[in-house]
Amino acid sequence: MSADGSSTAARPAPNSADAVDGQAAPAAATPAASPRRRGRPRIDLRRLGLAALLGSTSRGRLPDAIGHVADAHRAHHPEADLEPLRRAYLLAESSHRGQMRKSGEPYITHPLAVTLILAELGAETTTLTASLLHDTVEDTEVTLDQVREEFGAEVCFIVDGVTKLEKVDYGAAAEPETFRKMLVATGNDVRVMSIKLADRLHNMRTLGVMRPEKQARIAKVTRDVLIPLAERLGVQALKSELEDLVFAILHPEEYARTRTLIAENAAAGDPLGEFAEEFRTVLREADIAAEVHIRPRHFVSVHRSRIKRGELRGADFGRLLVLVNEDADCYGVLGELHTCFTPVISEFKDFIATPKFNLYQSLHTAVTRRDGEVAEVLIRTHQMHKVAEAGVVALGNPYDAGSDEDGADGERVDPTRPGWLSRLLDWQRSAPDADTFWSSLREELAQDREITVYRTDGGTLSLPAGASCVDAAYAQYGEEAHACIGARVNGRLVTLSTVLRDGDTVHVLLAPPETGSGPDAEWLDHARTPAARIAIGRWLSSHPEGPVVAAAAPRPQLTVESMRPAAANAVVDEHPNAPVRMAGCCTPVPPDAVTGFTVRGGAVTVHRVECPAVARMSAAGRAPVAVHWTQLDDGAEYRVTLIAESFGRPHLLADLTEAISLEGAAIISATVEPPVEGRVRHSYTLQLPDAALLPALMRAMRKVPGVYDVGRGKESAAAAQ
């Protein structure tokens, strides 16, 4: 087919939800009175169809059918070259000629409407060109090679990314696999998803000719997948209208009630108008150049407010939007409003200093007048407003030279590829089937807030709110995280189930590969990210016997006794000839600070001064006896209790006892407690040939893989005599 519009036989449009939906939904399914769209005329699809059929033009002249698109595009891009749009329209119109939508309009009205939506949002020319062509490869004889040859590689890539997979090839997996394909393409070029969102919006607007059950199915997918994607990509203008359309289909009674509330409030008068005038006066007197607009809430927003607050007052049906030129002016406006009105402190949020993960920036506040009326206020610059409405669409062509900086490796650093998208692209490769991908995608998109945690090596991890140390481990190490044995958060040892907070510093601890450690089934209870859940599930499926650690971890208490006597060399100051023995509860050795207590038979038991038994006996009125260490005799030995805290793994007990033996210490007794949340506590009573060896012994024990702390034993005070 040539670019000048010469005819080509077009195969009939397939009977798919997105390709052949209708003209207009009935009143209950289309919020035509949505306050968000007041003042914006709807495009007459029949008139567009007529213009498409009759608007043949000479070469170089813009067809009448895309006049609205051209006007909207030039409003955002005055210098834009419209020639690609002309050629794309001619190809699309000729290739779709003869295809009709279920509503009776020529099919070309659909790509025209989708392109108009994007043009109104400020999309650049390449996006609009691809939008006009987005159904040609899927529904006509046009090929990707032809698109590439006539419009270039970028347009071809975008069209390919939006093109659905055939049900004849994929069956029931066609829809999830199509979304997987689109998301992978979006990872390279966000314009793919921009077109998909606009495509779904127009299809939702015209869903009324579908059977109710099909409307509900499409609305649920829109709710679970497309609306969260619109939110994450910051395209609030599309997200809000999609929410209202879904609301009307899935909750018609609540929708009708909300619609009635909005109509009644409009008839009663809007107190926000008075607020707006007062704001303008205050800001004018403060010499701050600002625009003040009333932003009516859309249907779903009103519905949520009613559920949250109960009965709504007039000012609850909208918010005031203040637009300024510079970031600093935002804070100037905030100061003036908080000075001249009473602020509601709990409503203040600064999304300029800390933008949302979807690029959104704005100051949120609420102020009260003397009459008690409260108004919510949004304060942002014009550029922030553009991004708030259009999100990634407003960022233009991510491949333009100078649009962002290159990375250190020479590859493009794309600010529109946030952490959630990178995570999604990583875990989708591991999803074993379409059902797992589809359910995991919905779980991923259900997370509506992101946090950033810091790694001890200087890197960062973007995780959904509520993520645990398990999620951090798999986000950082992938499948190597199977060997995770613990974590430190902000320098403190924590369990793997610990929920992370924004700004935490995380250090994941891994067992050596040779230990054969693996995840526990309980890790699935702590994992919030699909990447972690898929990896853990796959490992558990391939290891039905469970992790080696669990099998090797000692369950009963293990006690080993030796009959070797303990030598004592403290001298008792007050009773120099009294028998002396070291307390078993704290096992003091030189140069510990010590004290003593007389026991039956005139013997003196020596304790470390910080031993809990000392405080207990002193409180009971027992007088301490002064003791001190003397010069050690050759061959004297000392007994000490050490507590080793570790993560469970195979052969840990053997490795610890070997480390102790290599330092020349003899084990008098050893107790290994049952593991708790993967952690094991070992208590060793040891005989040392020289008290000076104790620091080196403790260092050697700490070096054993899996051991995270070794300290002096502090047994129960009840053990003291």
TrEMBL record:
It comes from the Bacteria. Residues 1-42 are annotated as: Disordered. SMART domains: HDc (SM00471), RelA_SpoT (SM00954). Transmembrane segments: none annotated. Residues 107-204 form the HD domain. InterPro entries: ACT_dom, Beta-grasp_dom_sf, HD/PDEase_dom, HD_domain, NT_sf, RelA_SpoT, TGS, TGS-like. Residues 641-715 form the ACT domain. Residues 449-510 form the TGS domain. Pfam families: ACT_4, HD_4, RelA_SpoT, TGS. CDD domains: HDc (cd00077), NT_Rel-Spo_like (cd05399). Residues 17-34 have a biased composition (Low complexity). Belongs to the RelA/SpoT family. PANTHER family: GTP PYROPHOSPHOKINASE, GUANOSINE-3',5'-BIS DIPHOSPHATE 3'-PYROPHOSPHOHYDROLASE. This is HD domain-containing protein. It comes from Streptomyces cavernicola. The lineage of its organism: Bacteria, Bacillati, Actinomycetota, Actinomycetes, Kitasatosporales.
